[in-house]
Amino acid sequence: MNSQIRFAAVALCVSFSLGVAAQNISPPQERLLNRADIEAAIPFEGVYSKRLYTDTVYITMVTMEAGKSSSHHNHPDEQTMLFHTGSARAFVGENEYVVGPDDILIIPAYIPHRIEAIEDSTWTEVHGPGFNNGPRWENQ
Asked: E strand or H helix at 38, and its extent?
């Protein structure tokens, strides 16, 4: 009986190893994409987005009509928003911000938030792993 268990364990290890070896695992590679080629979504009425997943983060390009809003939500990843056009109110935790072109808003992981467009607005979001472990520039 003991030899049968050993044989089964060896067979399982070999089949697992072969399964792992058969996977096509490759390192991250650079890519060139065009925003026009990314499929659009409508997560809320009056909100249009295109999302691109990379190896470590995802990027969302958002257009929101005046008077429209996202739901009040949170998520396990940090969210950095770069506003391009229009103006919006950002409700982040207990704080309220009015944001517009060239403003950058950083929302930590798990902090409840929502965005409400004052005018037709566009921005780009980068959602990352939710912790800050990157190198620092001098003079910051």
From this structure: none
> Which domains can be identified in the chain, with CATH numbers?
35-127 (2.60.120.10)
Tokens encoding 48: 């249009």
Please answer whether residues 38 and 51 qualify as being in contact, where contact means their C-beta atoms are separated by less than 8 angstroms.
yes
- Closest to 88 in 3D by CA, of 79, 96, 99: 99
Phi, psi dihedral angles at 14 (to 5 degrees): -65, -45
What does the pLDDT look like over 15-45, one tens digit per residue? Answer: 555 555 556 667 778 889 999 999 999 988 9
Q: Tokens at residue 109, please?
A: 């992981």
Distance CA 123, CA 29 (A): 26
User: Sign of torsion, CA 118 119 120 124?
Assistant: negative
- Residues 47 and 63 sit within 8 Å (Cβ to Cβ): yes
Note the pTM of the prediction, 2 decimals.
Answer: 0.73
